[in-house]
């Protein structure tokens, strides 16, 4: 092609083949290329023959020059040999790493203009997004009978890089790539959120595959098998992307996670006109970065349906025991059958929960048939939390996304099925597991609304004697301590329900039988002082700073629940008479109230207050005293009521 005299003097123009051979020219480009010469390289790369011969070797040279080299990389993706370039792009993704100096600033005004929309992104994210855009273009050009081989190569590299650099922008890029690889014909929507604005999309003409298979279409049987294998790889990639996104991309800024269970319960609960506190649903509707989380999950749910991920398939994987699970996918030994490509079960439960939540909150997508508490949610708890010493330990240590998913599925689950309605062991697993999930994660402890999930499971069990036995076990056994606070509330609800149901006789209901109730009462009202048995300079009145914080954060709510429950019994003349509360008052006074008042008195002593303030500060003192004052106020109310 004819070149202006000024351009022709540039080494990148003057040395163009046939003036030099391709290898020599490539070496010259490597040593002569500067950001200022990128427009010249972009010009010469319009020569398809040249780009086919050297384009794949330019990838590693151009990636560090992003975002200014984006046009040149796009040229290589559109005009180079797609098979060779895919390998180079995959290698570049595997080697991608964050650098210490990632400023995208430049002294060149034109380059600054080109990079302005991405200046806020770290360089490695710009590189990741550009490389994925190249893969979209390259895969659309390849004509081969074995598409899955190239998809597997790209997918392996993409997932490895994404696991190192998960961000909302890299998530948007990988979802765009998966959509393009699927051959989905629907045009991409205009960018709706900030992460989508960072996507790179090629708009130039694409050259045909220079090595296109002569019989790329193949026979119908082999073609169908190849399509299924490719589809399974895309299913695998989508589930891995979802898992990484929920585990690593939605913690900050707060609130952390998707808060699915909380929002679902808010949706299911009867709205109260007098409540003006913003709900989690309001937050996710009004705050932009939270809306973006929902948008991302919406895209994943939509893609999962496009990729043929049926709900029944997800459930089948979720319900498998640990011993029945296949080994992880080995990309170096790719299976020939789609059934041999395993879908990771943690990702499957996240996707199933995402579908249920999307349908519940937004009424969008295909309605998902809810699971049943028995045996479905029971099996999920056993499969995902059953390897721990206790459900509470499991809920505290497992990722919040998993616990949120389990609670969400349980919140919308049907209460029972006729054939499994009286599974006593399943009932215990269900109540303990859901209670642990609603109370174990630190992020959930502030949301009392989540207590509705295990409460519904408890009250729905048809055998009232089994419910009573479990209640007594929770209130008596030390390892069930985490469930005592909600159990007191369940007991109150059982008594209210019975009071409103006079048709039941006292012998039908152990909760309202005075003798049976006495066992529950004695289990509730046992005082165990957290204070040390001896007074020392570091623990005046036996109160250490650790005891002070334990009282403030953990023990005070239990004391308040027990006091409020006793006040409830005293104020209900019907229950007070029926349960013989007057005869139980000496037990309450001696075993709980008097020791509690003595403990609160120790907490309030000047020596303790001075020591706590010196060790922890005035704010800690105020927190503890506020909790103590509330306890004393309820004690005063009880004493007036009795």
TrEMBL record:
GO terms for cellular component: cytoplasm. Residues 203-218 have a biased composition (Basic and acidic residues). Residues 186-224 are annotated as: Disordered. InterPro entries: YAP-bd/ALF4/Glomulin, YBP1/2. GO terms for biological process: cellular response to oxidative stress. PANTHER family: YAP1-BINDING PROTEIN 1-RELATED. This is DUF1760-domain-containing protein. It comes from Trichophyton tonsurans (strain CBS 112818). The lineage of its organism: Eukaryota, Fungi, Dikarya, Ascomycota, Pezizomycotina.
């Amino acid at each position: 092609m004819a070149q202006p005299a000024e351009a022709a003097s540039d080494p990148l123009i003057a040395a163009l083949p046939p003036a030099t051979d391709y290898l020599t020219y490539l070496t010259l480009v490597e040593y002569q290329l500067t950001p200022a010469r990128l427009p010249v390289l972009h010009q010469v790369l319009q020569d398809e023959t040249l780009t086919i011969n050297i384009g794949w070797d330019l990838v590693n040279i151009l990636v560090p020059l992003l975002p200014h080299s984006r046009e040149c990389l796009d040229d290589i993706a559109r005009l180079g040999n797609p098979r060779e370039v895919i390998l180079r792009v995959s290698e570049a993704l595997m080697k991608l790493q964050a650098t210490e100096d990632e400023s995208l600033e430049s002294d060149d005004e034109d380059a600054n203009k080109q990079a302005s929309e991405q200046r806020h992104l770290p360089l490695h994210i710009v590189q990741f997004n550009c490389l994925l855009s190249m893969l979209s273009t390259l895969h659309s050009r390849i004509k081969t009978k074995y598409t899955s081989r190239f998809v597997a190569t790209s997918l392996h590299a993409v997932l490895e890089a994404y696991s190192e650099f998960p961000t909302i922008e890299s998530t948007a890029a990988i979802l765009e790539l998966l959509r393009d690889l699927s051959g989905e014909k629907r045009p991409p929507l205009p960018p709706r959120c900030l992460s989508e604005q960072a996507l790179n999309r090629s708009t130039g003409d694409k050259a045909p595959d220079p090595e296109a298979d002569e019989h790329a279409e193949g026979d119908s049987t082999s073609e169908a098998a190849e399509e299924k294998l490719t589809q399974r790889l895309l299913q695998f990639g989508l589930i891995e992307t979802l898992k990484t996104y929920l585990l690593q991309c939605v913690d900050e800024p707060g609130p952390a996670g998707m808060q699915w269970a909380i929002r679902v319960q808010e949706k299911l609960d009867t709205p109260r006109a007098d409540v003006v506190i913003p709900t989690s649903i309001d937050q996710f509707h009004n705050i932009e970065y939270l809306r973006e989380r929902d948008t991302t999950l919406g895209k994943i749910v939509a893609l999962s349906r496009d990729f043929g991920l049926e709900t029944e398939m997800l459930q089948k994987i979720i319900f498998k025991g640990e011993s029945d699970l296949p080994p992880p996918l080995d990309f170096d030994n790719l299976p020939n059958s789609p059934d041999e490509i395993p879908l990771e079960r943690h990702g499957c439960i996240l996707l199933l929960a995402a579908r249920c939540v999307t349908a519940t909150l937004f009424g969008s997508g295909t309605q998902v048939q809810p699971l049943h508490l028995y045996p479905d949610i029971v099996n999920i708890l056993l499969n995902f939390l059953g390897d721990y010493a206790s459900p509470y330990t499991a809920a505290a240590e497992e990722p919040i996304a998993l616990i949120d998913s389990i609670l969400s599925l349980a919140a919308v689950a049907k209460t029972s099925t006729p054939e499994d309605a009286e599974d006593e062991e399943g009932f215990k697993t269900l109540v303990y597991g859901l209670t642990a999930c609603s109370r174990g994660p630190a992020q959930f402890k502030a949301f009392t609304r989540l207590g509705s999930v295990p409460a519904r499971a408890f009250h729905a069990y048809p055998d009232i004697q089994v419910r009573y036995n479990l209640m007594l076990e929770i209130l008596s056994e030390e390892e069930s301590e985490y469930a005592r606070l909600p159990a007191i509330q369940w007991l109150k609800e059982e008594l209210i329900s019975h009071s409103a149901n006079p048709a039941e006789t006292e012998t039908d209901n152990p909760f309202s039988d005075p003798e049976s109730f006495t066992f529950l009462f004695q289990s509730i009202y046992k005082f165990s002082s957290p204070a040390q048995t001896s007074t020392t300079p570091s623990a005046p009145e036996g109160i250490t700073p650790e005891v002070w914080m334990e009282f403030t954060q953990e023990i005070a709510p239990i004391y308040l629940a027990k006091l409020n429950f006793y006040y409830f019994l005293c104020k209900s003349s019907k229950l007070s008479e029926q349960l013989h509360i007057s005869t139980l008052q000496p037990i309450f006074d001696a075993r709980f109230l008097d020791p509690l008042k003595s403990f609160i008195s120790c907490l309030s002593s000047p020596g303790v207050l001075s020591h706590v303030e010196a060790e922890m500060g005035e704010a800690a003192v105020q927190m503890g005293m506020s909790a103590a004052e509330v306890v004393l106020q309820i004690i005063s109310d009880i004493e007036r009521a009795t």
